[in-house]
Automatic annotation (TrEMBL):
Gene3D superfamilies: Cytochrome P450. This is Cholesterol side-chain cleavage enzyme, mitochondrial. Its EC number is 1.14.15.6. Its cofactor is heme. Keywords: Cholesterol metabolism, Heme, Iron, Lipid metabolism, Membrane, Metal-binding, Mitochondrion, Mitochondrion inner membrane, Monooxygenase, Oxidoreductase, Steroid metabolism, Steroidogenesis, Sterol metabolism, Transit peptide. One of its GO terms (molecular function) is heme binding. It comes from the Eukaryota. The keyword Lipid biosynthesis does not apply. SUPFAM superfamilies: Cytochrome P450. It is a peripheral membrane protein. The keyword Transit peptide applies. Its main location: mitochondrion.
Length: 384
């Protein structure tokens, strides 16, 4: 866990929860961790996280920062520094109406649709979604007008950026096989150099901008791939989406249901600065708390028939919303939640209004820093 990921860790921890209950303690390497799957207990953790919430970082990333004395963006910050920059970014990314979202997302979405139209039979969807994801965040960062004016000039650079971001996550997942701190000490050459080179390719002076791009790269692209996969497997959902207005709850619920089944971050971490009691267990300050988002989203008490993809279940109201926390909550919740939700919803609506989507292969969920399909999903898009 501290190294980054293990491909089937979510399955192992899910089985342990079913064996031991919604809370249990287990060592991950030398570190004693407490795993929590009850959404009510997760909310208690978020409520107790304090003014400066702390979370764990992948070991490879922290070792890189130490080796190169690198200052990084919001994801890597803690304490007063984190709070200062978070307060600056909150109004820009989490507040206000949807007009700015629409303006920033429309051009990259239109470009994605056009690319699929040009190659509807087995398009290179993962590559296209990487570009789409990064183009949206670039549009947010420089403004939609500047993005449209500069898109052709930036096309090659965005392609290189997409490749670099993907390499960072791929290489980090490989480095999970060995302690990065030991690799640095022993100077194991190739993987550390590969990780360093990948990180340096996207390292710019504006560290916060870098981390916003990193955060948006894999996470939104893979969330969209999972969303398309589920919708492709359920043509009745596609038909329903075509009859619903774009502002309908059903569209939003379809995205919620996909994030429930395939949360791109199946675990969230917190380290509290005060003692906490959960389910009668006294947990001292400084304990690593790991919130099992994958397991909580597939709990039959909250979600009857939890393996079934059913957007309609979310029409039942607030109780389900409390049981699924893919973006976390509290002051350190996902800064890009509003953008990601709008981006996923609008892109899905655009695609199913133009195409009948089919998935041509079966995939499973594996961890490579984030939750990804075990193989690239092959899609066919048939014009309606």
């Amino acid at each position: 866990m501290m190294a980054g990921s293990s491909p089937k860790l979510h399955r192992y921890i899910d089985a342990r929860h079913r064996q031991l209950g919604s809370i249990f303690k287990e060592n991950i390497g030398p570190v004693a961790c407490v795993f929590i799957a009850d959404p009510a207990d997760m909310r208690l953790v978020f409520a107790k996280e304090g003014k400066y919430p702390q979370h764990l970082l992948p070991e490879a990333w922290t070792v890189y920062n130490q080796l190169h004395n690198a200052s990084r963006g919001l994801f890597f910050m803690d304490g007063v520094e984190w709070l200062h920059f978070r307060r600056i970014l909150n109004p820009a990314l989490l507040k206000g109406d949807q007009q700015w979202l629409q303006q920033c997302c429309e051009p990259p979405i239109a470009r994605l649709v056009a690319q699929i139209c040009a190659s509807p039979d087995k398009p290179p969807i993962r590559q296209l979604l990487y570009h789409w994801s990064l183009e949206v965040i670039v549009s947010v960062l420089i403004g939609p007008d500047q993005y449209c004016q500069s898109r052709r000039r930036l096309e090659d650079q965005i392609g290189l950026l997409a490749s670099s971001v993907h390499s960072v996550f791929e290489t980090s997942a490989k480095m999970a096989l060995i302690s990065s701190s030991l690799a640095a000490k022993w100077r194991l050459p190739r993987l550390l150099k590969e990780f360093t080179d990948c990180a340096n390719e996207i390292c710019v002076d504006m560290k916060i901008v870098t981390d916003l791009i990193l955060a948006a790269g894999d996470t939104t692209a893979f969330s969209m791939e999972w969303l398309l996969y589920l919708v492709a497997k359920h043509p009745e959902v596609q038909s329903r989406l075509r009859t619903e207005p774009t502002e309908s709850p059903y569209l939003k619920n379809t995205v919620k249901e996909a994030l429930r089944l395939y949360p791109v971050a199946p675990f969230l971490t917190r380290i509290l600065s005060e003692d906490i009691q959960i389910k009668g267990f006294d947990i001292p300050a400084g304990t690593v708390l790991i919130l099992s988002i994958f397991t909580s989203g597939r709990d039959s008490e909250s979600f009857p028939e939890p393996q079934r993809f059913d957007p309609e279940r979310w029409a039942e109201g607030r109780a389900l919303r409390a049981a699924s926390l893919p973006f976390a909550m509290g002051s350190r919740s996902c800064i890009g939640r509003k953008l990601a939700e709008y981006q996923l919803q609008t892109t899905l609506a655009q695609l199913v209004s133009r195409f009948q989507v089919e998935a041509l292969n079966e995939v499973q969920m594996v961890l490579k820093m984030v939750a990804v399909p075990s193989a690239e999903v092959k899609f066919r898009f048939m014009a309606i």
